[in-house]
Amino acid sequence: MNGNHEDRKVPAQALGKQSIRFINPVYCIGSASVVGKKEGEGPLRDLFDVILEDDMNGCNSWEEAESTLQRDAVSTLLQKSEIRSENVRYLFGGDLLGQSIASTFGLLSFEIPYIGLYGACSTCGLSLSMGSMAVAGGFAENVICVTSSHFASAEKEFRFPLSYGNQRPLSATWTVTGSGAFLLSSSKKTGVHAAITGITTGKIVDYGLKDSMNMGACMAPAAADTILQHMKDFHAKPADYDKIITGDLGEVGKTALQDLLLQKDIDLSEQYMDCGIEIFDDDTQDTHSGGSGCGCSAVVLSALILRQIERGIWKKVLFVPTGALLSKISFNEGKSVPGIAHAVVIESC
Amino acid sequence: MNGNHEDRKVPAQALGKQSIRFINPVYCIGSASVVGKKEGEGPLRDLFDVILEDDMNGCNSWEEAESTLQRDAVSTLLQKSEIRSENVRYLFGGDLLGQSIASTFGLLSFEIPYIGLYGACSTCGLSLSMGSMAVAGGFAENVICVTSSHFASAEKEFRFPLSYGNQRPLSATWTVTGSGAFLLSSSKKTGVHAAITGITTGKIVDYGLKDSMNMGACMAPAAADTILQHMKDFHAKPADYDKIITGDLGEVGKTALQDLLLQKDIDLSEQYMDCGIEIFDDDTQDTHSGGSGCGCSAVVLSALILRQIERGIWKKVLFVPTGALLSKISFNEGKSVPGIAHAVVIESC
Fold it and tell me: Do A10 and B14 touch (CB under 8 A)?
């Protein structure tokens, strides 16, 4: 990656108000997923790279366990991709914990320049967006994007420690224990068939909802805003995509999103799916509205979505992780729960 | 910003392991600083744009007050720069609070695509780095980078609420109540004389220190690592800079940094200063080791450093905000306090 790139063409086109089209695609040349026990018993069980036997992963705290998810996801990715960490120019990472400590302690051993991101459960989309910019802009040949969440550390961070045994309403989602890591590159590798070709960066959208046990409803307006803007900026329609996939709206948010977009004459019914709904089987796993967390969209992207694209089953996907921008403090102080959603176009190539 | 940029040259050169040189400089066409009462009584009192009469700024909570700092910094910047928010393509923002809620609630009213960053007190450097990449890569014409901290919300977040009246050791720093915002642009404006010409992105550096009341010592190794790598990547020496300025190492960290670099034959004594030491007068303001927080480096950059560069008094500055990557939870669980530092080269132009 040394050397002067003055002679390379700028491979990007800013579209409309919030989008970028990458003229030279950013190749996703590898990915890895690490999940907890419950996720490993769900419908996607055969697709994950690593399934933990115990969600503590040999650690003394939930936070430390979450760190090991990121560490293991990046290690697995480096191994699968046969690339050394010295050849990765940036790590774009994030998680849901206060001050992103899962990323700090999970990623420090790699000694790769680190860009910490926070977009709540949308962080996977944010990391892919910023990683793509770094690669497409000619600032890096290879970057890794990684995010995680952990059911136990998230419940403690946002609601109550598990040992309190609090009840969960049916609108609540179940934070996924898992981490997904992605290797983005300016060079195509043999056998690689997935590339990021565009992004739409979301705005903070606040409908004034305050129920932290109904994140789907809080995030749906942001997902609608980003998808609508994406369609405008790219002059696209839902039929241009094989799938339009949100991160973790769950059952409640899914309905809200589709209703909001129908009001704008955008009908997602043919293409829509949600990572949070795919990852668990609510009939047998009792996860209520579905999975959530910035590990949720990341592991589903790695295990399911990229696999379908790699195989050419899906040619073009709009991946839209969604985040609820609250903290325990903002919630306790009576603030609303604004949402944000970052869309990434992934195509087979 | 619409239109095809295929014909533009990529204006960046990746240097060494961690650095980028922007061949086309990224202009800093405006900045704004908003500070609290105590900061407004310190040595830089005459240089800030807005000084609050009351650190609650008319709000009901410290967190809400911190949000208004970011809101007011961005509003002041837009006003000073005579630019409308629709013409700003991205907001790169962050703060120290869990889940970055000061940024969420402070920035939502601007309706600008938002990229949330977390680098603890280094976030100002991180935001300028990522903002510069977005501009230099041709992804945006104008972006705003904004960070904040607030003494009362930070004490509550990392140590104890103020009403507990806990004692502070002499090694402790005083979190600055303030927010600084910067408008970066690909186009030079009449009267603008400051530009970002390079960056060195830091790694997470952990020397195993655990004292959250001595952040300076925790962060000094990261600052040393980034400055050393910067000098290698750019084939530079301290004398190439008029000033080398860390974010908030304070008195303890300042000594540690200089000692660490002297061991590598880098002598900063001629050029070195620290924003945390500049912002308060310890003799009269009782701030112990100095100021800290990602508002500290941001407001000193806006009020003092850019002013000196604009006037041509300093031609070339290496600005190195430093961050301590801990949370109340990681601290209480006995983890170390790793550091990170992101360097930005700012030149008069």
Answer: no
